[in-house]
Amino acid sequence: MADRTNEEWIADLKSNGPAKEAALGDLRATILAGLPYALSNYLSPDNPQFKSLTEEVAQDTLLRAMDRLDTFEGRSRFTTWVQKIAIRIALTELRRRRWRDFSLDSLVDENEEGVSFPSLMIDPSPNPDGLTEQNDMLQQVGKLIEEELTDKQRQAMVATAIEGVPLEEVARRMGMKRNALYKLLHDARLRLKQRLANEGLTPEDIWAIFESG
Amino acid sequence: MELKGAIKRLVQRMGWDKEDNKMQLPEEFQKLLKMLENTQEVEFSCDDVYHLLDQYSEAVVQGENAEQLMPLVEHHINICPDCREEFEALLRVLQASPV
């Protein structure tokens, strides 16, 4: 495979004819060489799905990279920029497959007060004496969360921070982009932090109380 | 709201202030607190981070002090699991074929 500078990559990919074909072929090989490392935590090359997934990812990556060629600013090696695109495409697909059967509705407790923060309430304490007060406290925090956050913010927070659902998948189910979901969550965190501050508490205070007694 | 008092009473009842430190804050509550602790007024969004991720990852591989050069990227990937996974994946690729 030819070693190219960033400028040579761009020039070849923007050309017509054999230089372009060669560059596309080399880029495709580069993507396919990187994917086993990129996906090592998710999908083994021995997995029967591996080959078809990576072929598909390589193809989609080439299309997207060609489409966005003019947005490459040369802040990294060109191949790193392309690997970044490949990883986004591959992990998006793997997340979609993994969470296919997941529904946001499974997270919420519908009761007379509407949607609650269910996972904060269930913690069977081994200490029966502490149980009531523990619940009291959690109820209070739950109330604070209920007052400050919208249903959407609450749902997103439980799904991502507590259930470990990828932002990408929660965003898809909420009909928004991952970037917008991050901003929604950021706003929710800021509101909660502010409310705690209004109650005279910082998160650090609470840790300190629990750590030192 | 007597949140502070409630927490204190709870701590005492649970024996957290004694030797037995086995009693844990509910995990969900811990996660929530950690998250709030790490919350900043100004944060990068996923798109901001994606824009810089190739440059950031190369800096990490080359042993430059990427966290200091791009603290907002560092902050975001510590909060956002999706972006963190993508960063770690890119890092593995770059480490396999060094810059």
Overview of the molecule:
The complex is a heterodimer of chains A (213) and B (99). With 213 residues, chain A is mostly helical. Chain A has helices at residues 6-14, 18-38, 48-67, 78-98, 118-121, 128-148, 151-162, 167-174, 178-198, 203-212; strands at 110-111, 114-115. In chain A, 69% of the residues lie in helices and 2% in strands. In chain A, strands 1-2 form a two-stranded antiparallel ribbon. In chain A, strand 1 (110-111) and strand 2 (114-115) form a beta hairpin. The radius of gyration of chain A is 24 Å and the shape is elongated. Chain A starts with 5 loop residues before the first helix and ends with a helix. The model of chain A is unreliable at 118-125 (pLDDT under 50). Chain B has 99 residues and is an all-alpha fold. Helices cover 69% and strands 0% of the residues of chain B. Chain B contains six helices and no strands. Chain B has helices at 3-14, 27-37, 46-61, 66-69, 71-79, 81-96. The longest helix of chain B is centred in the middle third of the chain and has 16 residues, at 46-61.
